[in-house]
Amino acid sequence: MTAPMLSVRDLRLAFGEGGEARTVLHGVSFDVAPGQAFGLVGESGSGKTTVLRCLAGQYHHWQGDVAIDGEAYRGERSRAHARRAQMVFQDPYGSLHPRHTVRTTLAEPLRVHGLDRIDERIDEALQQVGLPPHFRFRYPHQISGGQRQRVAIARALILRPPLLLLDEPTSALDVSVQAEVLNLLADLRGRHGLTYLLVSHDLGVVAHLCERLAVMQQGRIVETLQRDALIAGEVQHAYTRSLVRAAEG
Prior knowledge:
Blueprint lengths: L5 E10 L6 E11 L4 E5 L6 H8 L7 E6 L2 E3 L5 H6 E4 L13 H11 L5 H11 L16 H13 L5 E5 L7 H18 L2 E6 L2 H7 L2 E6 L2 E7 H5 L6 H11 L1
Parallel strand pairs: 3-8, 3-9, 6-7, 7-8
Antiparallel strand pairs: 1-2, 1-4, 4-5, 9-10
Subunit structure: The complex is composed of two ATP-binding proteins (GsiA), two transmembrane proteins (GsiC and GsiD) and a solute-binding protein (GsiB).
InterPro entries: AAA+_ATPase, ABC_transp_ATP-bind, ABC_transporter-like_ATP-bd, ABC_transporter-like_CS, P-loop_NTPase
Family: Belongs to the ABC transporter superfamily. Glutathione importer (TC 3.A.1.5.11) family.
């Protein structure tokens, strides 16, 4: 069997100490195969974005065992980790520096990692996400929300990591633009063999992009299922059924 691109075992996280400690993740475990898109779904506060933040190095005090591309990960934000996994955030405007041009934004990770051919790599990254080369000279306020999210995806891809962590990547966009960005992500995964971990409260978004998903409630995974089972309504847990009913309503 092929080793998973992402392996998460017994991920636990608490905030506070002693009697004031509040546990927010209770032993979360799942695997994502290379080239697969895996979704984490649940209501706000279910812990799904917290899982992403642990994997992206935003939280460091979690417990459990995580491996990315066969390498153990302990929460560090190192250059090696940046080349294995990158995160695309929910708000494309908030995640881009307002006083940096697109070129500056895309050049920064290349310079940090000592890579050459910066302009050539920027052109390639923009082309991959469907933006013309002259966009490099624009600032975030000069482009639309969908275009900003394309820039954010280009920034995540520019180091060519095998794993993208996607935090509600379309929820801040107009409905008319959401499908465009989801189709772009699907196309990029197919062309480059990328692996996705997608967090969303929207079952439709997850069904569009992911083959498998896990349903989270109060910091726990209550059900893991295939997309086909979700679409067919073949779900087991009462909470999952409530999410399906809400999506249909």
